[in-house]
Amino acid sequence: MQGKKNTEKQLLKILIGAAWIDGHIQTEERQYLQKTAQKHNLADDPEIRPLLNELKAVKPDQCYAWVQEYLGSSPNQKDYENLIEAISGLIYSDGEMATEEAKLLTSLQEYDPDSTSPLEKVLKTVQTLYQRYANS
């Protein structure tokens, strides 16, 4: 079992990767990432700092690899929900969803431990995202 700090760090790396997934980081996404890093005392972490300050771009493949590393082959529901919630917050921080961001969210459905079919996974994720967007 990973320590809480390491889990937070992994999640922040995924968020940074998700912000880069459409090729650039929006101002609102940058602010969201900075706030998240400060909240978890990770802004000065040697691994996070260059990513957070956009000194190093993150390729989509790296983001997906971090997701796989974070969730593993049999994720628990709590980790999955934390990831969906964090990524959704980032994606909706700028008020728009790029195609690449939608693809990332769709790909996360395969990790949902509560879902039984691909269609159910898609419907559940779309419903959750719509509700969050409608309530924001």
TrEMBL record:
Top-level taxon of the source organism: Bacteria
InterPro entries: TerB-like
Name used for this protein in its record: TerB family tellurite resistance protein
Organism: Euhalothece natronophila Z-M001
